[in-house]
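[Discussion] Sanity-checking designs against the backbone

I'm trying to build intuition for which residues belong where. Below is a structure token string of 162 positions. I'd appreciate it if someone posts a full sequence so I can compare it with mine line by line.
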């Protein structure tokens, strides 16, 4: 893990999360439920992505605070958070969660690593101890099933700068 991510995790015990300039306003119940839903799904992300989402939603850190810890521009943190939320709310993410228990172990690993955690195909193959051919075949199978259920074809998310 990068040092910025470790700092975000360490900030959970510090006062950095409470160092907002404005007083914390209690959120509406439906917003709190949405936050819980996002945090629940964030547990399926890679540790780096999960730290960003948890820093923002759970610890109440601002984009500026997260950016200082990660050593990047606040706009980068805002864009990454927006992209992660879009990913968590995507129909493909929901499709995988609903159907993955019926899949083979290899297909589950590929879905988890490549489509949920957004690892590259090469990293997915390495971490799952599969060949690139098998990884590509499993991704194609998942996407074909997804499209057969009436969803739009899924495009690859933009690559991350981290």
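Best answer:
Here's mine. Compare freely.
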């Amino acid at each position: 893990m990068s040092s910025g991510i470790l700092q975000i995790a360490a900030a959970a015990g510090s006062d950095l999360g409470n160092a907002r300039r404005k007083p914390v306003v209690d959120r509406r119940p439906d917003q709190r439920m949405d936050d819980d839903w996002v945090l629940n799904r964030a547990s399926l992300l890679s540790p780096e992505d999960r730290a960003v989402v948890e820093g923002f939603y759970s610890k109440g850190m601002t984009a500026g605070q997260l950016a200082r810890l990660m050593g990047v521009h606040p706009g980068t943190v805002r864009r990454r958070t927006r992209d992660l939320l879009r990913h968590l709310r995507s129909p493909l993410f929901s499709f995988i969660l609903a159907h993955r228990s019926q899949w083979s172990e290899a297909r589950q690993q590929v879905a988890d690593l490549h489509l949920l955690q957004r690892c590259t195909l090469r990293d997915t193959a390495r971490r799952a101890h599969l060949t690139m051919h098998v990884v590509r075949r499993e991704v194609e199978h998942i996407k074909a099933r997804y499209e057969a259920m009436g969803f739009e074809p899924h495009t690859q998310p933009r690559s991350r700068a981290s």
